[in-house]
Amino acid sequence: MCQKMNMHEGPPxxxxxxxxxxxxxxxxxxxxxxxxxxxxxxxxxxxRPNKTQMDLMxxxxxxxxxxTREVIVDSEGRPVPTVLSALGTNMWEVDCEKNWNLPRWRQxxxxxxxxxxxxxxxxxxNMRDAVNRIGVVNGNAPEIxxxxxxxxxxxxxxxxxxxxxxxxxxxAYSMPRRxxxxxxxxxxxxxxxGPGGIQNLAVRNAIGIPGAYTPEDxx
Length: 219
Known about the structure:
Blueprint: E1 2-7, H1 23-35, E2 40-45, H2 51-62, H3 83-87, E3 91-95, H4 116-138, E4 143-148, E5 167-170, H5 197-207
Parallel strand pairs: 1-2, 2-3, 3-4, 4-5
Helix pairs in contact: 2-4
């Protein structure tokens, strides 16, 4: 069984990273889930393409300083609590949806606006460096996952984050109505976005992600 715990930005339209629960609560949730039979717990974050906010997220989730690549310690030299350690998990997922769409990007006034390539490279490079550093310290590097929706850029040949994660999770669930439309228009049962159609669309788009699939791939 799998349970995802969301660690996301503040209420819209805030661009700030904000942890949903404190470490003590996360520790209790992780323990309760394991006692209930859950074997996979995933810490889910909503990154913003803003260097300041991505750094805050990486430090809080992993306990690794993106600038020094070292473990962050307290005044007594002990590693600070982190989202991953509190939950007791080695699964870290980034959700790239509306938060990762160019028109919605908001930058710290001290930093210039990042291009899609720059933002994707900064996020994936620093996340990978952080989990590799955890692997050196603990002997077990966390897995990086990403989730998005079927029609998003990150589920296409133009993806900037998806090519560099360990696992891609596409939200290809069927819905009777399209919630992003003002009228909530109905989805035709046999249409392109109906049951079966939306899942096929997700797979077709995902095949185009660089490095995600080759014809020789048995998976």
